[in-house]
């Protein structure tokens, strides 16, 4: 006997998975992918121009790519890797990362990211990052005192002016630690834009699960 409600649930699972798979227009938004070399602190530090972190190029001054666990008392917000835009240096100048994405001219997008701080141990406040999307730029600051590794969500809305947009996140204030993780760029639902979003590993798992459920349902229907 056919059970339409099962087919509806499966359809919704596939639709949600497919939608999520194309959400983030950035490659490797959580810095999980790339050839990470452990320097003894589960950290790798780069000068400007490095491309070891898949999808990203380092800019500014030093950038440290840190993994869990580490001796600094810091933890990733998403996955097990994140960035410190101070590197091993104290104070300014700071580092950052940049990536170019495909956009639709005139369409509206939202850039979001997590700003990390641990001021009691690593200095500040304030701890700040300047986020830029093309010609749109804004300073984001965490002015609170934190006794543990803390992440604060930040968001920047922008309108694309061309077929591609440069996304840059650069440290602006801090002492020994300016954290960055879980960077995401998505098109506003009503903007009618297109892009070449690349799914993160968790999204791929969700999509695979949805396809598996659909396959099982089809086999049962034919038995």
Helical fraction equals 10-25%
Strand order in the largest sheet: 1-3-4-11-6-9
Provide mean pLDDT, rounded.
85
Number of strands: 11
What general outline do the C-alpha atoms trace?
Answer: globular
Euclidean distance between termini CA atoms: 11 Å
* Total individual domains: 1
CATH superfamily: Galactose-binding domain-like
Radius of gyration: 20 Å
Described by strand count, sense and barrel closure, the largest sheet is: 6 strands, antiparallel
Low-confidence stretches: 1-21, 196-207, 209-214
Looking at the overall shape, the CATH architecture is Sandwich
- Here the CATH topology equals Jelly Rolls
Given the helix and strand composition, which structural class is it?
alpha+beta
Fraction of residues in β-strands: 25-35%
Describe the fold and architecture.
It contains three helices and eleven strands; from the N terminus they run H-E-E-E-E-E-E-H-E-E-E-E-E-H. It has a single domain (23-222), classed as Jelly Rolls (Sandwich). The longest helix is centred in the last third of the chain and has 22 residues, at 201-222. The chain is of the alpha+beta class and 223 residues long.
Which features characterize this protein?
alpha+beta; 20% helix; Jelly Rolls; six-stranded antiparallel sheet; five-stranded antiparallel sheet
Give the SSE layout:
Blueprint: H1 4-21, E1 43-46, E2 57-60, E3 63-67, E4 81-84, E5 95-102, E6 108-117, H2 119-122, E7 127-133, E8 136-142, E9 150-159, E10 164-173, E11 179-187, H3 201-222
Antiparallel strand pairs: 1-3, 2-5, 3-4, 4-11, 5-10, 6-9, 6-11, 7-8, 7-10
């Amino acid at each position: 006997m056919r059970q339409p409600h099962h087919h509806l649930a499966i359809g919704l699972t596939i639709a949600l998975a497919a939608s999520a798979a194309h959400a983030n227009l950035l490659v490797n938004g959580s810095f999980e992918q790339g050839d990470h070399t452990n320097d003894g602190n589960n950290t790798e530090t780069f000068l400007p121009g490095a491309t070891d972190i898949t999808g990203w190029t380092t800019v500014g001054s030093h950038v440290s790519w840190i993994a869990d666990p580490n001796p600094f008392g810091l933890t990733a917000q998403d996955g097990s890797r994140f960035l410190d835009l101070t590197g091993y240096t104290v104070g300014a100048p700071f580092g950052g990362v940049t990536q170019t994405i495909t956009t639709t001219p005139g369409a509206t997008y939202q850039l979001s990211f997590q700003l990390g701080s641990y001021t009691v141990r690593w200095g500040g406040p304030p701890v700040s990052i300047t986020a830029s999307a093309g010609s749109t730029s804004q300073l984001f600051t965490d002015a609170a005192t934190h006794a543990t590794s803390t992440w604060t969500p930040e968001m920047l809305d922008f309108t694309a002016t061309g077929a591609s947009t440069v996304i840059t996140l650069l440290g602006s204030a801090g002492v020994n630690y300016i954290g960055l993780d879980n960077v995401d760029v998505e098109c506003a639902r009503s903007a009618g834009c297109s892009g070449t979003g690349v799914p993160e590993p968790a999204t791929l798992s969700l999509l695979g699960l949805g396809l598996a459920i659909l396959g099982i349902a089809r086999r049962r229907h034919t038995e």
